[in-house]
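CORE FACILITY INTAKE
Project code: CF-77B
Contact: R.S. (postdoc)
Sample description: multi-component assembly, four entities in total
Requested service: structural model of the whole complex
Turnaround: standard
Below are the sequence entries exactly as provided by the requester. Do not edit them.
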Amino acid sequence: MTKDIFESLRKEIKNEPYANHMGIRLRDIGPGYAVMETRYSEKMTNFVGLVHGGAIFSLIDEAFSAASNSHGTVAVALNLNVTFLASPAINSLLVVEAKEESRSKRIATYSIEVMQKDENGDRKIAACQAVVYRKDQRLAFLEEEAT
Amino acid sequence: MTKDIFESLRKEIKNEPYANHMGIRLRDIGPGYAVMETRYSEKMTNFVGLVHGGAIFSLIDEAFSAASNSHGTVAVALNLNVTFLASPAINSLLVVEAKEESRSKRIATYSIEVMQKDENGDRKIAACQAVVYRKDQRLAFLEEEAT
Amino acid sequence: MTKDIFESLRKEIKNEPYANHMGIRLRDIGPGYAVMETRYSEKMTNFVGLVHGGAIFSLIDEAFSAASNSHGTVAVALNLNVTFLASPAINSLLVVEAKEESRSKRIATYSIEVMQKDENGDRKIAACQAVVYRKDQRLAFLEEEAT
Amino acid sequence: MTKDIFESLRKEIKNEPYANHMGIRLRDIGPGYAVMETRYSEKMTNFVGLVHGGAIFSLIDEAFSAASNSHGTVAVALNLNVTFLASPAINSLLVVEAKEESRSKRIATYSIEVMQKDENGDRKIAACQAVVYRKDQRLAFLEEEAT
């Protein structure tokens, strides 16, 4: 059954309109855990020529969403606190990892990091602390599949 | 001279790759102040069918960036804290307003709000508190124009 | 009935161990709203001789707690994001105001500000954005009084 | 020379008015790193009888301050984002650990955690992400000692 959740999430994220609009791909998913990656080209830059903060946050939010919904019930994002540490090189490989730090019936918290990975070593781009509110309601696409 | 900064920012934001990728338009800009708007269609939705948090954050970050760079020198985003209050209707008019709350030589802080506007009244979608580090360096596109 | 909540909260805060330990007094309370004040002496300073960040945060949290519990049911603090803007003068009058920004069945958010007030004008010391989780459970001291 | 910084900080924190007011003791300090501990009695409780959020934040801020000033130059707290995960038992041993996550010339970021420690195992009480602005100015008490 647990396997079904992850398979369904993989499929849903692969077909997600926003993930496709941003070029974000899922690399790994588990209970309370997700890893995503992307490379941002010039079309993701801001008016000073750097990768836009919104593009980096989108990567964070995508991993946060996958990790927090990985228990099969709906998790609603309440609060994200993002600290930007460095600006990534254009077209560099960016990897985001979201890890569950705590989970109660209604609330769960996550620690999320974006790293630039290349042959010269890793570089931390952004760090985030995030909170969801957890509903009882099962994810709709899991229900549909069960039928 | 101040007028030139705002005119330049209007032009730069109009041509910004990311703002165009996201369909965000500048509506108003002043010293430490910016208003932007957008409408997000189905292609901006996440895997549960709602407008993606990354798309809402992108709108926030765009206004934050315009407001914090409106003094003519480079402002680097350090930290954003976003609280999501409601999910906007698809294709609804979203308006973001960024206001400077404080500014010293090196640090400035902003309060940013996203509202859904329609005939039935306004609805608050997200609230953000954000901090920049201010460099001495003038915005490159202002230098180029001065020549 | 509503009047009873505010009278009870006034009494509870007046007798609160921590508020007394910190010298914090309630000035005003209403639905989703609270104002507190204090003056911090040398005994509240840190090792560089300034009023300690913990003392300023305590003032914020006290107002946040009163405002978020003002509806009569238990509100649990989930997340506070504090930006420090200036260091207050020792023994100056510090006033904190907490305002409810949004409230749903389970979640409510607050905007909180600390000002230094004196004859030369006001000075903003800190700004905070905060989130509570709201339980169904009534505040215990309201139940006791009802008996 | 580095040894002198840590010895001085140990002495300054031992004599700090606020740390004494709150009963917080330094346990360990290193470059960008600090561990503190305390036990909060009934006099640190709020009007619902739990340890006050301000008391927990004070512990966080104390460790943050020691860790961020451990390089010998003045670090000014800009922003702290705290998520409260559980309420500690009264008089339980609370241990806070602050770790530097990144440091550039002007900005450094820290991850800070409060744990309740007892024979039945550890329990995470709060998690914090925090940012300082770094000045060139040396800590005054280091200068005085050099004379």
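Facility notes:
- The domain at 2-146 of chain D is CATH 3.10.129.10 (Thiol Ester Dehydrase; Chain A).
- Chain D has one domain: 2-146.
Invoice: internal transfer
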